[in-house]
């Protein structure tokens, strides 16, 4: 059974998948797509064009058949049983549905070893369901996000950490036939077979590389996990997989992760958590001292959902309690990758199916396509890498939550874990297990609620920690059965020593070392050896004939302890029924720089039985007997003396050992005192560490407050801010930036040039590098593709110690300001246009009134022309000001407008100068008067005359000034007028902040105007 989940862009991926999929794979395919509930689906018709397999939309309960495709209908969710697939209405409102997760969980319960395939789609639906598939032994295949039209769903599935294969769609289709065939071949019973040796080698190699022993995990579980890895790695048997494991180092971590099964979810098994919240957690708060610490341990926490679920329940209960003790949650696991995810506390949006809306709002913060646990929950939890089977447990725990871990351990390990939990719990502490686990029959716990799997620790002695297994990190070599030491091979010096001794004494002999071990034997010495029953040994006194053992032991003692030779009296020894006298000579052998040795010579005499001659007299017989008894008495005395010497030597050794023991006792007493001192030092260090911990906690709270202030400040300003390092990689960004650049959480560390944006601006990297080089801020106004405007500021990022570590880029949305400015400018232009129109109307009226008034008053035509020309000059200046929004007017434009009729006879020279609006009108009138006077009386009144008009810009006292010079030549002779007219008054008094001088030279008038440009 293969479930296929997709969303946006998924139809294209499904079409490519089924086109590349062979029709006879042996699997049934169920397609779950996010469909519009209000429209009929055409998905089955579309897919039927891409495959020869039957494609049907699921309606009533349908029997599942291989090589068939089943499609989800609109506004319904899919359910699957052992043999049928059916539909049911959604329990959740639209917008909160997760049909892919729901089907995958149903598939995991009924067909745990099936396939889960995630293709293109938006959101994170399916990222929780694939965990259930993985936990139950199935395979998870994900479309390569680089190929997907919408990569959010594939990325979320990969981020869950359970994806087995990440491939393009067509490669997934091509692998399906092989994966299905492998699944049928690699059944657990077939894998196990007679491959116990290969299995032991795999587990031993895994233990060697990871330090963790899985040999006591339940065998079926281990076999199923191995079968999954064999499917993925394309190996046919355990022997091939063992070779692959050694050849591919990364496969070790993959197998390790599969065996750990780091899969969990929020509030898994809701009825059990409801019981915990209603009956158990309130008891943890009952009768508790406010200064006490509530300690909770979650071993096997995986990616942290379980421990955060407990944290949420505890905070909810704490809000209802008056007494609020300090709360500590310890979360431990072997999988460092899962722990890293747990520490991030960031989970996909699909957790909405497990967490209520109220809890999402209360304890989570949405960040793009993820939910992050709020700090008030994260601060309660401490994550640690910890082995429940190898490391010492935490202590003084009020509640242990260990769910779905014991089911993977054999009975012996389960008993050990139960003992560890009992040691870790306080008296009366609670143990919370998974729905498939139990410790019934264990004398350390009593059942609180069997359905919820809650147990309570009974009172038992807690004198010491239960023994933990010895986990080695190297290969284990089985110990051989216990047997005595064998004879060590002789070396060249021993052989040389023996040969030298043989030159001195030729009888049968053997060389014995200081430990009474036989080193070498002569060729004829075997006659005197007789090993007794029991373990094999090489000690000389134990392998010679029984009659010789006592004398040999005494002789060796004297040779090594007293460095004396020994020769025994003849000793009767029985050889095959005959008794012969044998003498033993033991001689110490000393050589320089060599270990001590002794040479044992066997001196064989005649038969030991002596028959008395019947002819001997009684006195002679008695004398013979007495002599024999005396010899035996002397031999006995020698034995006793040797025994006494040996006893004295042993006594001396015991005395020396006793003195050594006393010395060791003194050393132990001294060590104990040192340990006491060390204990006091450790207590002092512990107090210092607690003080330091409190200081660090206060600093952390201060940093947290500063971080919260910064987050709220950035949220309040609502600015899109981007922090780049010197290599133009993203360090951080505010959520607002996602509206401009296509970035999501997790893109930190990637170059900003990798991301597309909505700006008509491609010089961000270049400008940022220029800011880094010049340390000068840049400010620009830029437009986006959606007709929005932003004020861009790029500034250097300075640390507190004034180091430059990148740039800060801010985008201030000024769209409304820009639009308001455009509207204001448009209204200003409209107003100016209206003013200009009204001015022209008024000008026409004034001109008509003046013309009529002058005519009625009998004024001359010259006076009327003069007034009209001045009004025209005023109108020209006004038009120029209107064209320039009453701001400034170009001097050359003003001159050209006022002197339009005489520009061919007036030479102009000077730089480009902008005249303020308030100066334009009086200056225009002044130029008009100069031109009118020149045309009537000056240089322009004759054909030979001309005028030079020049100007220059300068500064006086830091202020800009304009000097304009009107110079006439070639005209009639000029004389200073005797009376002042209107034109003269206008020139001298009509220009504000200006100095006007006129020089009436005979050659022509020179008029100089100096005026301020401010």
Your description of this structure?
The protein is of the alpha/beta class. Helices cover 42% and strands 21% of the residues. It is built from 27 helices and 38 strands. The strands form eight sheets. It has a seven-stranded parallel sheet with strand order 3-5-2-1-8-9-10, with helices on both faces. The protein has a seven-stranded mixed sheet with strand order 16-12-11-17-18-20-19. Helix 26 packs antiparallel against helix 27. The longest helix is centred in the middle third of the chain and has 100 residues, at 618-717. Residues 468-489 and 610-616 have low confidence and may be disordered.
Draw up the topology in text.
Elements: E1 2-6, H1 10-20, E2 29-33, H2 43-48, E3 55-57, E4 62-63, E5 69-71, E6 77-80, E7 84-88, H3 99-110, E8 115-118, H4 129-135, E9 139-143, H5 152-159, E10 165-167, H6 169-185, H7 188-192, H8 196-210, H9 219-233, H10 238-247, H11 249-260, H12 270-285, E11 293-299, H13 305-320, E12 326-333, H14 336-344, E13 346-348, H15 357-363, E14 364-367, E15 370-373, H16 375-378, E16 381-385, E17 397-402, H17 411-424, E18 425-433, E19 445-449, E20 454-457, H18 492-504, E21 509-513, E22 518-521, H19 540-543, H20 546-562, E23 566-567, E24 571-575, E25 578-589, E26 597-607, H21 618-717, E27 720-724, E28 730-733, H22 764-774, E29 778-783, E30 789-798, E31 804-813, H23 815-856, H24 861-883, E32 888-890, H25 891-898, E33 906-909, E34 914-916, H26 917-936, E35 946-956, E36 959-969, H27 982-989, E37 994-1001, E38 1004-1012
Parallel strand pairs: 1-2, 1-8, 2-5, 3-5, 8-9, 9-10, 11-12, 11-17, 12-16, 17-18, 33-35
Antiparallel strand pairs: 4-7, 6-7, 13-15, 14-15, 18-20, 19-20, 21-22, 21-26, 23-25, 24-25, 25-26, 27-28, 27-31, 29-30, 30-31, 32-34, 35-36, 36-38, 37-38
Helix pairs in contact: 1-6, 3-4, 6-9, 8-10, 9-11, 10-11, 12-13, 20-21, 23-24, 24-25, 24-26, 25-26, 26-27
């Amino acid at each position: 059974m293969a479930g296929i989940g997709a969303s946006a862009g998924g139809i294209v991926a499904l079409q490519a998948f089924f086109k590349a999929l062979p029709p006879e794979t042996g699997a049934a395919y169920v397609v779950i797509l996010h469909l519009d509930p209000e429209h009929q689906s055409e998905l089955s018709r579309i897919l039927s064009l891409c495959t020869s397999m039957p494609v049907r939309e699921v309606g009533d309960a349908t029997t599942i058949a291989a090589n068939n495709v089943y499609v989800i209908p609109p506004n319904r969710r899919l359910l699957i049983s052992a043999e049928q697939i059916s539909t049911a209405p959604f329990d959740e409102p639209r917008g909160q549905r997760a049909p892919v997760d729901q089907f995958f969980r149903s598939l995991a319960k009924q067909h745990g070893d099936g396939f889960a395939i995630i293709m293109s789609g938006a959101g994170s639906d399916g990222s929780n369901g694939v965990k259930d598939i993985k936990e139950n032994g199935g395979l998870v295949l994900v479309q390569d996000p680089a190929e997907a039209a919408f990569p959010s769903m594939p990325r979320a599935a990969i981020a869950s950490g359970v994806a087995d294969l990440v491939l393009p769609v067509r490669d997934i289709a091509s692998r399906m036939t092989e994966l299905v065939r492998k699944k049928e071949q690699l059944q657990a019973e077939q894998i196990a077979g007679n491959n116990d040796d290969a299995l032991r080698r795999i587990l031993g190699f895994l233990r060697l590389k990871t330090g963790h022993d899985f040999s006591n995990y339940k065998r079926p579980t281990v076999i199923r996990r191995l079968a999954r890895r064999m499917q993925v790695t394309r190996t046919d048997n355990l022997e091939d997989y063992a070779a692959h494991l050694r050849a591919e180092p990364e496969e070790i971590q993959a197998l390790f992760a599969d065996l750990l099964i780091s899969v969990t979810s929020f509030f898994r098994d809701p009825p059990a958590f409801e019981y915990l919240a209603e009956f158990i957690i309130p008891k943890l708060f009952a009768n508790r001292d406010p200064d006490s610490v509530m300690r909770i341990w979650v071993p096997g926490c995986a990616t942290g959902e379980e421990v955060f679920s407990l944290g949420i329940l505890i905070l909810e209960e704490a809000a209802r309690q008056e007494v609020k003790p300090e709360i500590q949650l310890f979360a431990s696991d072997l999988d460092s990758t899962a722990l890293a995810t747990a520490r991030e506390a960031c989970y996909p949006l699909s957790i909405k199916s497990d967490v209520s809306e109220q809890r999402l709002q209360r304890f989570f913060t949405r960040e793009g396509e993820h939910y992050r646990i709020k700090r008030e929950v994260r601060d309660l939890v401490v994550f640690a890498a910890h082995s429940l089977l190898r490391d010492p447990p935490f202590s003084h725990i009020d509640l242990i939550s260990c769910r779905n871990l014991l089911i993977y351990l054999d009975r012996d390990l389960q008993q050990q874990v139960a003992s560890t939990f009992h040691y870790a719990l306080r008296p009366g502490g609670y143990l919370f297990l998974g729905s498939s686990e139990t410790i019934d029959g264990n004398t350390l716990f009593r059942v609180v609620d069997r359905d919820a799997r809650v147990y309570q620790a009974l009172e038992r002695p807690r004198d010491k920690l239960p023994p933990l297994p010895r986990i080695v990190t190297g290969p284990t070599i089985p110990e051989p059965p216990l047997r005595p030491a064998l004879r060590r091979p002789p070396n060249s010096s021993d052989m040389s020593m023996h040969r030298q001794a043989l030159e001195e004494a030729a009888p049968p002999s053997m060389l014995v070392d200081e430990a009474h071990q036989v080193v070498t034997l002569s060729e004829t010495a075997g006659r005197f050896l007789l090993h007794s029953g029991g373990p094999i040994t090489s000690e000389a006194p134990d392998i010679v004939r029984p009659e010789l053992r006592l004398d040999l032991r005494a002789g060796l003692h004297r040779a090594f302890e007293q460095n004396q030779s020994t020769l025994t009296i003849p000793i009767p020894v029985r050889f095959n029924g005959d008794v012969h006298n044998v003498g033993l000579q033991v001689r110490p052998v000393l050589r320089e720089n060599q270990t001590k040795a002794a040479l044992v010579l066997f001196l064989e005499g005649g038969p030991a039985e002596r028959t008395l001659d019947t002819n001997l007299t009684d006195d002679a017989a008695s004398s013979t007997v007495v002599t024999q008894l005396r010899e035996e008495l002397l031999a006995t005395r020698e034995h006793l003396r040797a025994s006494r010497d040996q006893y004295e030597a042993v006594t001396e050794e015991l005395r020396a050992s006793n003195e050594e023991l006393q010395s060791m006792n003194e050393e132990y007493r001294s060590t104990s005192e040192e340990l006491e001192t060390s204990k006091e030092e450790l207590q002092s260090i512990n107090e210092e560490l607690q003080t330091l911990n409190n200081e660090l906690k206060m600093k952390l709270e201060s940093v947290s407050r500063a971080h919260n202030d910064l987050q709220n400040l950035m949220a309040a300003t609502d600015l899109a801010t981007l922090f780049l390092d010197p290599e133009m990689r993203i360090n951080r960004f505010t959520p607002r930036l996602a509206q401009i650049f296509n970035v999501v959480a997790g893109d930190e560390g990637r170059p900003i040039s990798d991301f597309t944006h909505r700006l008509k601006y491609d010089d961000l990297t270049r400008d940022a590098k220029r800011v880094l080089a010049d340390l000068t801020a840049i400010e620009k106004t830029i437009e986006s593709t959606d007709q929005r405007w932003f004020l861009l500021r790029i500034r250097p990022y300075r640390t507190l110690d004034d180091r430059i570590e990148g740039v800060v880029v801010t985008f201030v949305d000024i769209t409304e300001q820009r639009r308001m400015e455009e509207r204001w400018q448009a209204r200003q232009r409209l107003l100016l246009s209206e003013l200009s129109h009204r001015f022209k109307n008024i000008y026409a009226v004034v001109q008509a009134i003046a013309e009529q008034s002058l005519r009625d008053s009998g004024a001359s035509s010259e006076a009327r022309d003069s007034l009209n020309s001045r009004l025209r000059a005023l109108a020209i200046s006004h038009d120029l000001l209107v064209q320039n929004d009453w701001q400034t007017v170009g001097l050359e434009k003003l001159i050209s407008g006022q002197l339009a009729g005489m520009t061919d006879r007036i030479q102009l020279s000077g730089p480009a100068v902008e005249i303020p609006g308030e100066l334009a009108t009086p200056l225009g009138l002044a130029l008009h008067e100069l031109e009118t006077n020149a045309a009537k009386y000056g240089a322009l009144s004759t054909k030979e005359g001309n005028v030079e008009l020049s100007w220059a810009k300068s500064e006086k006292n830091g202020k800009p000034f304009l000097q304009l010079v009107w110079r006439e030549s070639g005209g009639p002779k000029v004389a200073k007028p005797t009376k002042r007219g209107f034109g003269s008054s206008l020139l001298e008094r009509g220009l504000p902040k200006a100095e006007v001088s006129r020089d009436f030279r005979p050659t022509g008038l020179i008029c100089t105007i100096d005026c301020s440009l401010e």
